[in-house]
Design a protein that fits this description.
The structure is a homodimer of 853-residue chains. Chain A is an alpha/beta fold and 853 residues long. Chain A has 33 helices and 31 strands. The longest helix of chain A has 25 residues. The first copy, chain A, is elongated.
Chain lengths: 853, 853
C-alpha cells in the first residue's frame, strides 16, 4: 500500500513511465511492455487501483488531465486492468466520446450506416452498463438508421429525464465511476475471491484511443496467437474481421477472414502480407521479450496496424507443458521456471483419456471424482459379468453399490467403475486409482435394481444392463452414451518437464503398486521404487481365493501351513515379477493386512458353494463365517494382529519374498527389499515379528546358500504407533506413515462411512477440508511429526515416509519436506504430479541449498 | 542387602535380640513379638535369609551353636519364615531329633503307641521331604507297633543304603538343607512371584523346641482366633485336639474338643478354664499390641500352656472391612490405617450376592468375569422371553451370542446375562455393570442352538431353555443348577470405612448413570454426582423405539421435529426424575451418541413389522435400513456428527433438559446441569452446537420466565480432540476423557472385536495388559495428559475428568490425581471401590498437604 503513494493516479503509458502491475494492473503493465517493444499501441492512460478506488467513492480524477493526451474530440475505450487477469473485472466500454457531432462527422468518413451503428452501440452499452437502465428498452435495431437512433436517444431521455450526455468528460466520468463500482459488487467479489484474489484486490483501468476498425481502405479487427491452445504446437490461430470493432470477434462471421493462406477462402496473409508478417514478428517478439506465448489483439485502419492489447494465451494442460518446455529449450526461460509454470494438478489430466471438452454431455448424475480419466462401456452389475464382458472383448462399466475385495477381478476387467456409496478413499476409489481405471463413487442418486437388471437415475430415466454409459472420473460425472474422448498425452515434452523436475526436487517419490501391472505403470512414470506393495490382492486372484478359504477353515497351524504351501509358489512368482520390473530400485512389501472375513462369502449362496467346496456341513461354514465377522473391521483382527495370531501367513509371505529375492539375484538383478508390518500399536508386535522374519530369512539363506539382506519397517497407522515411535524404531529401520488409517483413527471416522456427511461437514466449515483428501496438518500432521521426531530419537537414521492417498498431495509433500522425510509414496498415476510438486516446493524453498546443476 | 551384614545368621529369639522381618522373615519376627508380650513360647532360634541361602549352597550353619540353646537330646520343629506369609515356603518338619534312643525313652513317658507313632511320622516325613524318597514306600501303618517301625527303618536303609540317621545334628543339617533348596525350586518361585514376591525374596527358618502335645495329664494342640473369618464379628473360632501334635488339626476328629462351652460336647473352656481364660487374654493382647486379629497356635503339656505361633487371621473381604473398622474404633489403629488396610477390589465382592465359597460348583464353562455378583435363573434366549419371564415373576438368565442396544429391556428383566462373544468392555459387559446385573461374556465354548432352544457346552452337555443355571460374574464361571449364595454386605462398617475414605481423598468420584435406577444406586454409594448420563438408552424404552424409528424415516426437518415433539415429554420426565434423585449434586448429560441404525431392525421379520407400522412398502424400509448401515459403526455417523446432520435430535434433548431444570427448580430442588457433546473431533463442532444449545436455552428461559445456567463440555474420545484440546476448551467449560473410545481409536482396536485375541496378546506379552481393562498410560495416557495440558492452556479453569470403564481403576485414579483432574466417573457399582482407592492414593502421596481433620 505504501508504495502506491509514489505512483501518480493517472499515467500516460510511455516506455519510461513509472508503472507496476501491483498498482496499475496486469493489462496496463503489459501495454507498457508492448510499447517498449515499439509496437504501435494507441495512446493509453492507466488509472491506478487507488484512482479507481477513489472513483468508486465518487472522487473522480481530473478529467482535463486524463483527456489531454487524447487530443480534441477523442473516441476512447475503457478496459479493466486487475492485478491478475483471472480475477475478472467489468466489461470494456468502447467508443466513449460518441455524440451527435461525432456521429455526424463519422457519417462523412466511414458512412452513415457504420457511424449510426457505432453510436447506437455506444448508447446501448452506456444505458445498460453505466446508467443501469432496463436492457429490454435498448435493443439494437435491424437497420441502423436515423429513426432508430432518434428512437434510442428518446428512450434514454424518457428513462433518465435527461438528454443523452454529449460531453466526452461527462461520459468518461460516468463510465469510470460505474466500472469502479461494479468491481465492488458482491458477485464480482465472490467470483474473484474464489479464484484466489485477496479481499482488497484492486482494479485498475486503461483508457485508450479507439482504433476504429471501420472506414476506408482495409479496416478491421483481429486476434492472433502463435501456438495451438489445445496442444501447444506452433501454429497461427485466430480470426480477422473486416470493417469490425468490438469484442464479439469469435461470434461474428460476416467479413471474417482466415489468417494464414487457406484454400477455403481469403486470408489476411494474402490481403495484407506486410501487416501479417509484422504480426508474426510481434508474436515472436512477445515470446522472446515477454517470455510467454501471447494472444495479440490488433486493428487495421486503412491498412495501418495497431496493437490494442496482448494477453497470455489460454491453454490446455497439455499445451501448458509443451509451451513451458519449448520456451526453456529455446533459452527464453530457465528450466526452473518451466518447472514452476506448470500446475501439477493439470498433469493428471494428461495421464488419462478425457471426454472431449467440446462434446455434448448428457449427464445422468454426479458423484465423487475418485479416479481420473474417462471411459465408456456397457453397464454390468457384477464382477462376473464384467469378466465375461472382457472375455468377449466388449468394454463395460462395473456399476456396484460399493465394491469389496472380491470385486477386484471385475474392476480389472471393467473400463470404468461406478459406485453408489463411499468417498474419495473408499475401496473402489483406492483400487480404481491404483489400477488407473476411471472411477466415480458416491453417486447416491442412482438406485440399482438387481431384479430388473436396471439402474435408475434420479430424473426417472432407467438404464438397463448392456446400455452404454460413460464415467468421467476427472469431473465426477456419469454420462449417457459414448461422447468423443481425447487420448492421454504422455509425449516427449511431458517427459522432459518431469526429468527437469527430478533434477530439482529433494525428496523421493515412490509408488504404491500391488501388481506387476501397477509396477509397470510406476516404472513408466519414473517412480524411484515401490513405497507400498499391498499383498492382499494377491490372495484374491484366480483360484487363490479358494486356497485362502481352505486356510481359514484349517483347524491347526500345521494344516494351515500345508494349505499355505500351495500359495507359496504363486506369491513367490508375484514378487519375482515385481522385483524384475523394479530392478535397480527398492520395493517395500507390506505384509498381509485385511481381516480374514473379507475372503469369505457374505451371502447364503456363497456359503453353500463354499460348504460344497470344502466338503463341510453348511451350518459349520455359516457358523465360522459368523464367528469371523466383525463389528468394526477397520479396528479388528487384521494386520500384525493376524500375523501374531496366525503366524503361518506371514511366514509364508516372508518365505515367498526371500525366495523371490534369491531367484532374481540369480538372474543378476539388483533389488532392495523392505518388509513393512501393518497396523502396529505396540513395540512388542514388531519385536516378535522381527524374530520370526529373521528366522525365515535364515532358513532361506541356509537352503539357497545365497546371502541377502532386507530392511524391516513399520507402517505407522495407529495413533499409538506414532506416540510410541521411539520404542518401535528400536526394531524398525523405517517408518512409513499410513495417513489413510491414521486419519480414520485420529478423527474416529471411517472413510467408508464418512461419505454420507463429509460434503455437508465441509460446506458448513466444520472441517476446513475433507481430511481424506487433504491431509489434516493440525491433527493427523501433529501425530506424524511427533512420530517422526520420536522415531529419530529411537534410531537417528530411521527412514521416514508417507504412503497412502495423501502421499502425492502438495500439502503432504510440503509437510514431508519440512520434516525431513525421505520420500512420499502415492498411487502410480499420482507419481508425475508428485514429482513436479516436489520440484516446485524445493524451488520455492528459500532455505534450499544452491545447486551446481 | 547391606543391613543383613549386621545381623547374625543364627539368633536365639529373646525380647531384645536384634531381629527384622526383612532379615529373618515374618514368622520369626512375630515370635519375638509374642515373647516380648511374655507369652510362653518354647525356645526358638531364627536362621536369617542369608543363612538359609548359604544352606541351600551347602554351607550349613555351625550345628553346635544352633543346638546349644535346646539342651541335650532336643526334639525340634523347623518352620519356614518368609518375609510375607503369603509367599509360602516349604512345609514344617516336626520332631527332628527322634531316633531309636529317644523313641525308647518316650515309650516310658507317653506310651509305646504314641512314641512309635511319633517316630514313624518323623521317619516318613524325613524320607519323603528330606531324603526325597518315593512316598509310596513310606505309608503309615494302621497299627504303629515295633514291627512296622522296624519295617520302615529297613525300607529307609534299602532305599538309601544308609541307616536312618540317629544324630540330631545330622538330621537337622539335612532338614535345613532340604528346606533351603525347596525354596529355590521353580514351582515354588513361580508361585510366590505370582503373589508379588520379588525375584530375590528370601526364606528364613525357625527352629523351635517341640511342645509335644502328647503324654500325661491334659496334652494336646489347638488353634484359636477371636473373630469370625467370614464376617469379622467377635467370636471364638478354632479347635483343640487332645493328645495330638502336628499340622492337620482341621482334618482330625478323634480327640477334638470345642473351644467355648458347647451343649454338643466337652470344651476346652470346661476342661481347662484357666488356660482358656489365658488364651482369651493372649488374643486380646495380640489385638492391642500387634494391632491385628491373630490366630494363635498353642499346645497343652500336662496342662501347661505353650504358644507355638501366631498368624494373621485369614479373612473374607467382609471381615477385613469389619476388623479394620473395629480396630480403628477401638483406638488401636488410626482411621488412615483402617482405610489403608482394606483392598479396594475386595469391596466389589461386598456389593453383590456371591456363590457361597463352601458350595459345590458344577462348572459348565468359564468366560470373562464382566459384571460381578452371582445370580441364578432359567435359561432364556431372547429379550422378549426374559421380559415374559420377569412378568411371571420367574428369575431368568439371558443367554445371547452378544447383546445389542435392543436387548436392554431383556437385560433389565434378567437376573444375569451370559454371552458367547465380546470382552470386558463389550456392550453386555458395560450395560451389565451399569445395571449391576451379574454378567459373564466371551464364553466362547458354548453354542446356542436357536432351533432346538438349547445351549450346548463343550463337554457335550445340553442345557435347554428353562433349565436353571447360575452366572458367577465375579469369577467368570457359569454353573449348572442353583448353588447357595451369600447376600451383599453393605453394612454399617462398610459405610463407616467409606466415609473415612471420603475424609482423606482429594479427587472427586462421580458415577456413570443412565436411568433413575442407576442414579439411585449411585446416590446409595455416595457418588458426588453423575459424570456421564448416556441418553440413548432413553430411546429404547417402551414405545419410544417406535417413535424413534418414525423419526428416522421422516423425510424433512419439520417432520422429524414433529415426531421428536412426542418424545420430548418422556425425555423431560426422565431428566426430571434423575435431577430429583441427584438433588444438590451435578448431573452431566451426554447428548445422543449412537448411530441411527442401532434403532432399526436387523432381520427380515423386524423390517416387515416396521414396514407395517410405518405403512411403507417393505423395499423402501429395507433400502433405508441398508442405506443407514455402516462398515465401522464405531467410526461412523454418530455423536456430534448426528447432532450437526440432524440437529432436531439435540434440540429436543436440550429442550427436555432445560425444561426439566425449570421443573425441579420450581420444586426448590437445586441441581447443577452439564451438557456434554460426544465424539468431537474439531473445535467448530463445539462452536456450532454451543450456538444451537444456547438458542434453545434462551427460548426455554423466555417461555418459562425462569433463569438458569448450564455448563457445556466435551467428551474427549477421539485422538484429534485431545490434540486440539486448546481450541476446543475455548468453547467448553469441561473436558471429560472417554477413555473407552479413546483407547479404541488410539490402538485402532474395536473393543467388541478385540475379545477374540486379547487374551492371547496379553499372554504373549504383546500388550502388558488388556488396555480396555487397565488404562494404557504410555499411549492413551499420553494423549489424555496432553489433552489436559492443552485444555488448560485454552481455558485455565477448565474442569477435567475421566469417564468410562477405566474411571474407577487404581491406575486411572492415580493418573488423574497426578494430572490434577477434578474427578473420575465410573459405573455406580465401582463408586465405593473408587472412593477407597482415591483415599489410599491420597494417603500414599508423599506430597499431599497435611490435614487438620
Amino acid at each position: 500500500m505504501q508504495q502506491q503513494t509514489t505512483y501518480s493516479p493517472l499515467t500516460l503509458i510511455t516506455p519510461t513511465a513509472k508503472m507496476s502491475a501491483a498498482v496499475h494492473g496486469g493489462r496496463a503493465k503489459c501495454l507498457q511492455r508492448l510499447i517498449r517493444l515499439d509496437m504501435p499501441v494507441p495512446v493509453t492512460v492507466a488509472l491506478s487501483f487507488d484512482a479507481v478506488h477513489d472513483a468508486a467513492k465518487g472522487r473522480l480524477p481530473d478529467m482535463q488531465t486524463l483527456l489531454a493526451p487524447f487530443g480534441d474530440d477523442p473516441l476512447l475505450s475503457v478496459r479493466p486492468s486487475s492485478q491478475d487477469p483471472d480475477w475478472g473485472g467489468p466489461g470494456a466500454i468502447l467508443n466513449v466520446g460518441m455524440n451527435d457531432a461525432r456521429h455526424a462527422a463519422l457519417t462523412q468518413t466511414i458512412g452513415v450506416r457504420q457511424a449510426t451503428d457505432m453510436y447506437l452501440r455506444f448508447i446501448q452499452s452506456y444505458a445498460i452498463h453505466v446508467a443501469r437502465l432496463d436492457p429490454d428498452a435498448f435493443y439494437l435495431p435491424d437497420t441502423p438508421d436515423a429513426d432508430s437512433l432518434r428512437a434510442m436517444l428518446e428512450t434514454y431521455e424518457q428513462e433518465t429525464d435527461e438528454a443523452f450526455p454529449q460531453d466526452v468528460a461527462a461520459q468518461l466520468s460516468e463510465v469510470l465511476r460505474s466500472m469502479a463500482r461494479a468491481w465492488d459488487g458482491t458477485t464480482a467479489r465472490l467470483l474473484r475471491q474464489a479464484k484466489g484474489a485477496p479481499v482488497d484486490a484492486g482494479l485498475g483501468l486503461v483508457v485508450q484511443a479507439m482504433a476504429l476498425g471501420v472506414g476506408e481502405g482495409e479496416c478491421g479487427q483481429g486476434v492472433i496467437q502463435f501456438v495451438d491452445p489445445a496442444t501447444g504446437a506452433p501454429r497461427v490461430v485466430g480470426r480477422y474481421i473486416s470493417q469490425y470493432q468490438g469484442q464479439e470477434l469469435s461470434r461474428k462471421s460476416e467479413g471474417a477472414l482466415f489468417l494464414n493462406r487457406d484454400p477455403r477462402g481469403p486470408s489476411l496473409e494474402e490481403i495484407c502480407p506486410d501487416q501479417f508478417a509484422q504480426l508474426l514478428s510481434y508474436g515472436d517478439l512477445c515470446r522472446r521479450r515477454l517470455r510467454e506465448e501471447m494472444e495479440v489483439i490488433f486493428t487495421l485502419q486503412d491498412g495501418r496496424l495497431r496493437i490494442l492489447d496482448a494477453i497470455r494465451v489460454q491453454r490446455s494442460s497439455r499445451a501448458a507443458v509443451r509451451i513451458a518446455v519449448a520456451l526453456a529449450e529455446d533459452g527464453i526461460i530457465a528450466r526452473e521456471e518451466a518447472v514452476m509454470r506448470v500446475e501439477p494438478a493439470a498433469l493428471s489430466e494428461l495421464l488419462h483419456r478425457q471426454v472431449d471438452p467440446e462434446a455434448d454431455r448428457d449427464v445422468i448424475t454426479g458423484g465423487i471424482a475418485a479416479s481420473p480419466g474417462a471411459a465408456s462401456g456397457r453397464i454390468v452389475l457384477t464382477s462376473a459379468a464384467a469378466q465375461a464382458s472382457a472375455a468377449r472383448g466388449e468394454p463395460c462399466v462395473l456399476v456396484r453399490r460399493e465394491t469389496t475385495p472380491e470385486d477386484i477381478r471385475g474392476m480389472h476387467a471393467a473400463q470404468a467403475v461406478l459406485t453408489m456409496r463411499g468417498g474419495v478413499t473408499s475401496h473402489a476409489a483406492v483400487i480404481g486409482r491404483g489400477l488407473g481405471v476411471p472411477c466415480v463413487v458416491g453417486a447416491s442418486d442412482l438406485v440399482i435394481d438387481r431384479k430388473a437388471d436396471q439402474v435408475k437415475a434420479a430424473d426417472g430415466r432407467v438404464f438397463a444392463v448392456g446400455d452404454m454409459i460413460t464415467v468421467d472420473g476427472t469431473t465426477g460425472q456419469v454420462l449417457a452414451g459414448e461422447p468423443p474422448t481425447l487420448e492421454a498425452a504422455l509425449d516427449d515434452t511431458f517427459q522432459t518437464l518431469l526429468h527437469w523436475a527430478d533434477d530439482y526436487r529433494d525428496i523421493g517419490v515412490r509408488a504404491n503398486a500391488d501388481t506387476p501391472a501397477d509396477a509397470q505403470t510406476a516404472r513408466n512414470f519414473a517412480a524411484e521404487g515401490i513405497g507400498l506393495c499391498r499383498t492382499e490382492h494377491m490372495f484374491f486372484e484366480g483360484h487363490r481365493l479358494g486356497v485362502m478359504r481352505e486356510m481359514i477353515f484349517a483347524e491347526e497351524g500345521a494344516d494351515r501351513r500345508a494349505v499355505l504351501d500351495r500359495l507359496l509358489p504363486m506369491q513367490r512368482a508375484d514378487f519375482q515379477a515385481l522385483f524384475e520390473i523394479m530392478a535397480g530400485t527398492t520395493v517395500c512389501v507390506r505384509l498381509f493386512d485385511p481381516p480374514l472375513h473379507e475372503f469369505l462369502p457374505a451371502d447364503k449362496a456363497g456359503m453353500r458353494d463354499l460348504a460344497t467346496q470344502l466338503a463341510l456341513p453348511l451350518p459349520e461354514v455359516t457358523e465360522r463365517v459368523q464367528a469371523l465377522s466383525e463389528y468394526n473391521p477397520m479396528l479388528g483382527m487384521r494386520g500384525v494382529r493376524l500375523g501374531i495370531a496366525i503366524p503361518e501367513i506371514y511366514d509364508m509371505q516372508a518365505r515367498a519374498i526371500f525366495e523371490a529375492m534369491v531367484a532374481v539375484r540369480q538372474k543378476d538383478i539388483k533389488i532392495n527389499v523392505e518388509i513393512m508390518i501393518p497396523l502396529v500399536s505396540a513395540m512388542r508386535e514388531v519385536e516378535l515379528m522381527k524374530a520370526r522374519l529373521d528366522a525365515v530369512a535364515n532358513a532361506v539363506r541356509t537352503k539357497s546358500k545365497v546371502d541377502f539382506v532386507y530392511r524391516l519397517g513399520v507402517m505407522v497407522e495407529t495413533p499409538r504407533a506414532a506416540l510410541r515411535a521411539e520404542d518401535i524404531a528400536g526394531h524398525a529401520e523405517f517408518l512409513s506413515f499410513g495417513t489413510n488409517d491414521l486419519t480414520q483413527m485420529t478423527y474416529g471416522l471411517s472413510r467408508d462411512d464418512a461419505g454420507r456427511f463429509m460434503s455437508a461437514y465441509v460446506k458448513q466449515g466444520v472441517y476446513a477440508e475433507d481430511p481424506f483428501h487433504t491431509m489434516d496438518i493440525e491433527g493427523v500432521g501433529e501425530l506424524v511429526a511427533l512420530g517422526a521426531e520420536r522415531g529419530r530419537r529411537g534410531r537417528p537414521d530411521v527412514a521416514l515416509a508417507i504412503c497412502g492417498e495423501h502421499g502425492g498431495s502438495r500439502s503432504a509433500i510440503a509437510f514431508c519436506r519440512a520434516h525431513g522425510f525421505d520420500y512420499v509414496s502415492c498411487s502410480p498415476f499420482r507419481v508425475p504430479v508428485a514429482r513436479l510438486t516436489a520440484a516446485q516446493l524445493t524451488l520455492l524453498d528459500p532455505d534450499r541449498p544452491s545447486r551446481n546443476s
